[in-house]
């Protein structure tokens, strides 16, 4: 690890990844949190709140938080799990075959075992070139007991006007509205937004497209069964101390996730899920 050059972002150590074609990304060691992705010749694709808090024990609002081993408050652990507010170790930062690649790793410790008595290793790999970005989360059971977990890559996309944004590719997918637990099915192929949304779309197998005037982003997943679509809406944003009230109009979370059917890992087994983005 000693030969990995770190940079600083908002006072936090980070990996600055840059591909030969100019595509670049920044990943904090704090939470292995991707906070910026600029495709080659493009603009920033991720939303990062200007009021985001940084530092030990905090959760950064925006970018791509890593959720493991519990999604949200769906279980007894701290909200969104144990790894998004802890420091990860940089393992690799290289350019290979035209791709900039960064790898970070987190291993269970006394603090995580206080909440969750299991041995595990989490590894996040970020690879980018051109207009493509792959984010892979890999989990290994390093302990001697079987465990179940849920996970997500809580991706905040930047948009110019949420009310003019649409998501395509969810037609026919069953979903759960998280605030009230009601079940539904996506009727039309175009999902638009007029206010808050908080849904788990189940067993999503198609590539999704986020589309607004002059801009299109494709989202594909593998290993993850579900997709979460979330925006706090006007009232929800006003209740968040780390996000400007009006910024609900400039972001949408479309998250690769495995929530409905938790993953079960026996000792020595591993699992991996990937979210692939094309701008």
UniProtKB/TrEMBL annotation:
Keyword Chaperone applies: no
Spans through the membrane: none
Full protein name: Putative glucose-6-phosphate 1-epimerase
Class of enzymatic activity (EC top level): isomerase
Catalytic activity annotation: alpha-D-glucose 6-phosphate = beta-D-glucose 6-phosphate
Lineage top rank: taxon: Bacteria
Keywords: Isomerase
Family of the protein in this entry: Belongs to the glucose-6-phosphate 1-epimerase family.
One Pfam family cited in the UniProt record for this chain: Aldose_epim
PANTHER family, A to Z: APOSPORY-ASSOCIATED PROTEIN C-RELATED (PTHR11122), GLUCOSE-6-PHOSPHATE 1-EPIMERASE (PTHR11122:SF13)
EC number: 5.1.3.15
């Amino acid at each position: 690890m000693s030969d990995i050059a770190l940079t600083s972002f908002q006072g936090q150590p980070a990996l600055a990844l840059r591909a030969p074609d100019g595509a670049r990304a920044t990943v904090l060691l704090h939470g292995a949190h991707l906070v910026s992705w600029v495709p080659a010749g493009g603009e920033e694709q991720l939303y990062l709140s200007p009021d985001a808090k940084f530092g030990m024990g905090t959760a950064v609002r925006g970018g791509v938080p890593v959720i493991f081993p519990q999604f949200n408050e769906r279980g007894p652990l701290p909200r969104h799990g144990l790894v998004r507010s802890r420091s990860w170790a940089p393992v690799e930062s290289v350019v290979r075959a035209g791709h900039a690649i960064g790898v970070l790793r987190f291993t269970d410790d006394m603090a995580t075992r206080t909440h969750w008595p299991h041995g595990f290793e989490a590894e996040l790999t970020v690879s980018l070139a051109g207009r493509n970005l792959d984010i892979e989360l890999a989990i290994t059971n390093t302990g001697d007991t079987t465990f179940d977990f849920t996970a997500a890559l809580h991706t905040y996309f930047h948009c110019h006007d949420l009310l003019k944004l649409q998501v395509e590719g969810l037609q026919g997918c069953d979903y759960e509205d998280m605030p009230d637990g009601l079940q539904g099915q996506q009727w039309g192929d175009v999902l638009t937004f007029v206010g808050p949304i908080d849904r788990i779309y189940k067993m999503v197998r198609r590539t999704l497209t986020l589309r607004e005037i002059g801009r299109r982003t494709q989202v594909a997943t593998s290993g993850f069964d579900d997709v979460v679509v979330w925006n706090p809406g006007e009232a929800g944003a006003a209740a968040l101390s780390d996000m400007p009230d009006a910024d609900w109009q400039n972001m949408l979370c479309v998250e690769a996730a495995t929530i409905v059917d938790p993953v079960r890992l026996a000792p020595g087994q591993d699992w991996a899920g990937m979210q692939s983005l094309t701008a």
